[in-house]
Structure formats: structure tokens, C-alpha cells
Input
Amino acid sequence: WDMAGTLMFCFRVCSRKECLDCDFVDYNVDTREKQGEIDVIGINLEDKKAYVCEVVTHLTTGLSYSRYGKLVTYNKLKDKFSKDIKYGSKYLKEFNITYMLWTPIIKHSSSIKYDQFACIKRVKEYILNKFKVNVEFIYNEAYKYKLNELREVASNKNSASNLNVLRYLQIEEHLKKHLINLNKRKNFPKGGNRYECLVSESRTSWGKRKTFIRPWHRGNRLGGIAEFIKN
Output
């Protein structure tokens, strides 16, 4: 997968104990058929649940596939889930399987041909009629909700994570808390604010001006010195 697989990270974190409670998660699972792969499979052994997921992250075009200039989104998704369901029926018989598509952006269009909402409706209807399976689509607001779930997990998790996406969210959320607490304190200069800086300048030996910026906080004991060199 490519970095469009950011969503796979999201699924992995959500599927580990916090959300979907999976014991195992695997990616790019070979279906043992020609050119067949499933993006993500999560397994919950205790409850006998499996999550078979496709991931599409097209940030500009939304949920859209084309080939030789021709739109093929419907056929592409139809084939993907047909393949996934055949795999699940063969290798995951003992599990209660949820089939999912994760995609951040689905767009409306005045033309039915390009309306991605109409496309996923057709896909759902096709899969339901042929396989009696209801595919769950995670997109737009639902996708944002899942990202917020990740933020909440990161906000409450103190131990370091080896997942890059979760670690990034941990840093962001804990920094946010820290700055909120910092700004609640009252010991900053009268008439100023906590982000005022003490600035001093000097000339370097090669003639450039060097500017030192010291964030004000309890006699400059916190924050350190930021140094900028200007022409």
C-alpha cells in the first residue's frame, strides 16, 4: 500500500483494543487468486469477528477510478468486494464478517455518471442482491468521526506508540493540553500575554545580524532560546 494507507493505520489503531477489538490485523492480504489482494483484515478471536476492509484515499478526485480515460469506479468496487466476499466465505467461515470500505472523500455531482454517492449506492445494491451482504462504507463525516476517535485514544495514551500516526496525534494532543494549562497561569507581564518575547540583537563576525528570542516565562527558565539569523 502507499501513504494513502494512512487510513490503514487508523484502522489498525481503532481495531486494536480501543474500537474494534481485534487480536490480529494484517495488510495487503493475498487472496491466492491472480492479482488479488485485500487491503486490511482484522480478526477478533474471542468474539469470532472478522473485518475485511478496502481502503481508497483519493484526496483530490474522491472515490474515483479511471482507465484509459474512462470512469470504472463501479466495476472496480464491485469486483473488489466480490473478491473479498469469496475469500471470506472460503477462509473465514467460522467468523462473523463485516465488509467495509474506508475512504475520506466522496463527492456529489449534478451528473449521475460522476456522482460518487450514486456509485456507492449501486455497489451496495449489487453486493446485497448477489451475496446477501451489506457493505459498510466509512466516508466523509463517519471518517472524520473515526479520526476523532483516534485523537481521543491518543489524548488518553501516555506510553509511546510505535505507530507513526498515533504517535503524531499523541504529541499534538498532549501539546494542546500543555498549552492550555500553561495559559491558565497568571504570572505573566502586566498588560502583556504569555507569548511575548524578549528580543536582543548582535552582529556576527561575518556581518549578519543575529536575533535571539527568549519566550517569557518565570524569568525565562522555560522555553529555551530560539536563534534566528537574518541578512
Notes: Strands lie at 24-30, 37-44, 49-55, 66-67, 70-71, 96-102, 136-138, 197-203, 209-215, 226-230. Helices lie at 6-18, 73-91, 116-131, 140-156, 164-184. The chain is about 35% helix and 25% strand.
